[in-house]
Amino acid sequence: MKILVGISRIIVGVLFIISGLIKLNDPVGFSFKLKDYFAPEVLDLGFLVPYALLIAILVVIFEVLLGVALLLGYLKKFTLWALLLMIVFFTFLTFYSAYFNKVTDCGCFGDAIKLTPWESFTKDIVLLILILILFVGRKYIQPFFTKGIRSILIFASFVFCLGITYYVLLHLPIIDFRPYKIGANIEEGMTVPEDAPGPIYEYKWKFNINGEEKVITTNGEYPQVDGELISTETEMIQEGYTPPIHDFTMERDGEDYTEQFLNEENLVVVIAYSLGNTEKDGYIPIKEVTDKALKNGYNVIGLSASSQEMTEALTEKYKLNFKFYFCDETTLKTIVRSNPGILELDNGTIKQKLHWNDAQKLQLPVVENAKPKLDLSLKQRLDSIAVLDQKYRKLMQTNSLEERKKLGESMGLSEAEYSGDLSQMQRVLDSVNMVFIEKYFIQKGYPGKSVVGEESSLVAWNVLQHNPDKIPLYLPLVKKAAETGEIPKTSAAMMEDRYLMMEGKPQIYGTQGMTYDDARGSFIWPIENPETVNQRRKEAGFEETVEEYAKILFGQDFEYKPLTIDQIKK
């Protein structure tokens, strides 16, 4: 018995210390797991969610100290009871999660060792047996060292745990066990190997055989029986291979930019998984380092799970010179334990990852053959104008007064603003925006991507589009910007077509359509030499033919038919 107690003492003590230290390395991650347990569909302890991080820290430090106390023989009675109560609670929790399939990963060993719910429950049963052995043979648990030395060692362990906690909360985990660690390639992490095992399903076929119901179970193949099939039930009994990285996307305005950004060199990514509880102080150093990155030739984007309205309000408040794209919140929490945090990507490979406290440590050597330095002051002004350009247009696109009110309140607008004459208010903003843009046009030309970056290069184009009376004056400037690569050729083509349509002339690229509520219906505005329009569209950079584009505008049932100006007039 003495030997059995000694072995159990070592196993339990070492396991508690290792498990605690692994979670202490990433208390934020453990707090996320606790929130899963506190959710309404699990334990329904929502009042504990705000204290999840504090609870996580206390639990893991206590776990480490119990392991140390057991090995030292410190406060034997208290230690054994604490171990027993803790393992009984966690055994119940892991059984509940496994049986009802509530939480798929208990988080016992953080991200270092992934256990299924039933594996976690089995582990806790083994520990429970070992701790009961310690209870029965507690007389064989003899202390090491003197009482004073044991107290000093326990206190030193406590200080050591506090030191680790303090460091990882102000920086990042000391050891990164997640699939987004430095050196990992995101695209490779999302790839499923060709020889990866697929899921295994069990099929229960219910047949009527000679008036008697019979159930036959197979793994997919249809049973060879003579009878009438009544029903089939399918159950997955073993999951297939799941890549370590999934649910990773970079989206904005309904478009997926994941492939584009994962194939881009010198990309800096600011991650703010939730703006509702983000560290506002973090955006001061974030702005400094991202401005430096832009000047040194890097592209900078943000990733957040918050709404576009919230991210635009944040960029406006802190004068950030980049746009946010959408990504799943759980994924962003997994990438970096900092809100905000910062990454450097090179063709999808994570080169640097930092807490916002360490943003100034981001190494940003000047990129060879980098694009010219951007005018960040102008970029900030244009990004602000871009928000104003869409301010009331977003409200005008709502489908109901209730939806308009909800959106208006989320934008911080008063009732008078979101309930007023939206068209008139937007026209006023368009005129004000055009004053600034026109002044810049006259003094310096078109503010293209070499001046304000690719993402801000079309702001002036949008403002001009919304002031059609100015298009005849500045269309040549826009066409010149397209010829020199400052804006896409497609943008200049669309504006030229719009100008020609306003003048009552045939367009060139077939980008403009009209819709009437009367017998005229919908149609593509007349095109000059329509038989060669698709060639011109291709040369201008359009991917769709005019026939395909017409279906995008007016629906899949629409059939494009060339019209003449005379036909339109009639």
Automatic annotation (TrEMBL):
Keywords: Membrane, Transmembrane, Transmembrane helix. InterPro entries: DUF6624, Methylamine_util_MauE. Its main location: membrane. The chain crosses the membrane at residues 7-25, 45-71, 78-100, 120-137, 149-169. Coiled coil: none annotated. It is found in: Membrane. It is a multi-pass membrane protein. Signal peptide: none annotated. Residues 1-135 form the Methylamine utilisation protein MauE domain. Pfam families: DUF6624 (PF20329), MauE (PF07291). It comes from the Bacteria. NCBIfam families: BT_3928_fam. This is DoxX family protein. It comes from Aequorivita vladivostokensis.
